[in-house]
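Next comes the chain:
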Amino acid sequence: MNISGSSPYISEESLNEMLTDLMLMFKNGRLTDGPYAQEFEKEFAEYNNVKYAVSVNSGTAALDVALRHFRLMGREVIVPTNTFVSTPNSVLFAGGKPVFADMNEDSLGIDVDDVKRKASSKTAGVIVVHIAGLVCPQINELKQFCDEKNLFLLEDCAHAHGAMMNGQKAGTFGDAGCFSFYPTKVMTSCEGGMIITNNERLDEEARCLRTCGQNVDRQAVMLGHNWRLNEMAAIVGKHQLEHLEEFLAKRNEVAKWYEKALANVDGITLFRVPSNFRHSYYKYPLKLADGIDRLKLASLLKTKYGVETGHVYYPPCHLQPFYMENFGTREGDLPASEQVLKKVLCLPMHYRVTQENVEYIRDALVSSIKELQTAF
């Protein structure tokens, strides 16, 4: 058996609808900056109950564009170390300096107490990442702190399409939410991203920035890049959005299978989700017991059993060579992240995972842990 860690899903019906739209697109000759991107934006804004949605060509571009609105030159942005490097990289590209905060080991999200410790007169804002698809449980406390200190709050929702806390969707708690539609995500446009906001000025600037800094009159009024989403990607994204609730239902069903199958497995701890949250389950993480080497376990699962696994994220950003060399970060700076993330293993999670797959993965996991413990 070979079970991939992630996989995009497009039904036969959806594929045929996409192909019809692609033929119409090629006939009308509008391959970028056209009606499909506009439809995708409108429908994504409506889905998230916000006023504005701006499509761009990647999740990284979404962060970059949104951050430039906040005029970061010479200022700092507090960023979780437990995230993909695109998050702090985008702060640098927008002219700011990332300051890394530790994480809460129960949610894998940013530690708000550490954010408060790291905030200073140089701080412009905070980026919160909804890791694995769980809305940061401390998001309201974080928003209150940012409001009190006059800081912006930007949500990195690359994992969290449709995730909710108390019925409110990820991306709508702060000043803006940034989404990725990379192929591994809960929904995809092959490559692409989206910014959502209720801030009219941010919406206007984002549309200008993504078009090389040109306004609606094609006058260059600011420095931007070509960050536009092409029409082919918009078509894929639009049709994926139509099935997002279906994708979320299936991922939550798979999560329930895992929870039941893994309930009594020695050597692992599951992350619990409070009843007032809807998890998007971009990833299904679990925590390994002390003494179980995550890398060796992942290798054994892949080579012997054909089970592909992942992580979120090790090494954390502050231990990436670039940041250690250029910002002087080092081991011991953020102890919770350093200790916990090396133990976090993510099991396969996507639409094609079956209950039979889950039971096979459980058996492979149990056997692999025993083999490693025996070898040790």
